[in-house]
Amino acid sequence: MLAFARRSIFAACGLLTVLPTLAAAAAPTTAVAADSGNVVVVLNSRDATITLLDQLTYKEINTFPVGKEPHHLMPTPDNKSLIVAAATGNSLLFLDPKSGQIQGQVKDIVDPYQIGFSPNQKWFIANGLRLDRIDIYGYDGNNLKLAKRLPLPAMPSHMAFSADSALAFITLQGSDELAAVDLSTQKVKWTMPVGKQPAGVYMTPDNKYLLVGVMGSDYVAVVDWRTQKIVKKIKTGDGAHNFRPQGDNRHVFVSNRVSGTINILDLNTLESIGSIAVPGGPDCIEITADGKTMWVTQRWVKKVSVVDLKTRKVIKSIPVGRSPHGIYFSNRAAEL
């Protein structure tokens, strides 16, 4: 795996120094939590804050301000930093993934709603949902260089990649489509309708199908991306939204924001094999490394719920900020 250079995060966030329009700025230091990997990072989108929770005690460690509308987050390829994308704040914030302490900040990244690295780590994409475009960057292991600002029909939302990193798949909430972008040419290869307000998209481990959460309805569309056909619709719950694999190469969870449920999908049979009640607009999901518990952000009730996966019951509900969205902790299950 190509590693992020640690110096790129610290020395004034040199990660993006090749871009002349970007200005890196030091960010205030947060209170340092124990460097144990038990820190839970929660993004409160409407409050423009991050809440840190203790995974063992369920108690709040700290809450601190960040750029406006932090929605999504992801670790860097070397897992030494956690990138938080502040959409209307037009910035990326870098945290220590174990403690939640701020490492640095990069400003003037325009509308980074969702972010992602291609599997080969040669490409980094920032989806600009409110600007109807995606920004594609080339990545050389230390720096990002803007390759293309590519307009897309309406509201590019979530993303997935083909295993060979040739294609990026982008859901388009405003036009009810799925787009495939050729990363070598930075051009749209095709678009296809998938249902009303598609949101989360997940590539199956065998690289055969894309699963698309159809947020304006109650199903997951199974897409054969090579033929651009929907081969199946898996009924879940109203507002099918986002995915998180269990880490066993067999099951994936999908949150249903409207119905207040989470479905468990079997990737071998492409069927739903059960559901878990998590009211209040369940959105993003994180799974502990031992596979025993699930943490879920609840967008409409300012809470995070902890679910025992053996009993499929909520065992704890923790107050956080308004409209909690992305969630992460470092002792997490694999994303497969």
Account of the 3D structure:
This protein is mostly beta strands. The protein is built from one helix and 29 strands. It has a five-stranded antiparallel sheet, with no helix packed on it. β18 and β19 form a beta hairpin. The longest helix is centred in the first third of the chain and has 5 residues, at 6-10.
Keywords, please?
336 residues; mainly beta; four-stranded antiparallel beta sheet; 1 helix; 29 strands
Secondary-structure topology with pairs:
Elements: H1 6-10, E1 24-25, E2 39-44, E3 49-54, E4 60-65, E5 70-75, E6 82-86, E7 91-95, E8 102-107, E9 114-117, E10 123-128, E11 133-139, E12 144-151, E13 156-161, E14 167-172, E15 177-182, E16 187-193, E17 198-203, E18 209-214, E19 219-224, E20 229-235, E21 240-245, E22 251-256, E23 261-266, E24 271-277, E25 282-287, E26 293-298, E27 303-308, E28 313-319, E29 324-328
Antiparallel strand pairs: 1-8, 2-3, 2-29, 3-4, 5-6, 6-7, 7-8, 9-10, 10-11, 11-12, 13-14, 14-15, 15-16, 17-18, 18-19, 19-20, 21-22, 22-23, 23-24, 25-26, 26-27, 27-28
- What is the alpha-carbon Rg in Å? 18 Å
Q: Describe the strand arrangement of the main beta sheet, using strand numbers.
A: 1-8-7-6-5
User: How many strands in all?
Assistant: 29
Number of helices: 1
Low-pLDDT residue intervals, each spanning 5 or more residues? 1-33
Q: What is the straight-line distance between the termini?
A: 17 Å
- In terms of DSSP E residues, the strand content is over 45%
Share of residues in helices: under 10%
How can the largest sheet be summarized? 5 strands, antiparallel
Shape: globular
Q: Output mean pLDDT.
A: 90
Oligomer: single chain
Q: Which H/E pattern describes the elements? A: HEEEEEEEEEEEEEEEEEEEEEEEEEEEEE
Which structural class do you get from the secondary structure elements?
mainly beta
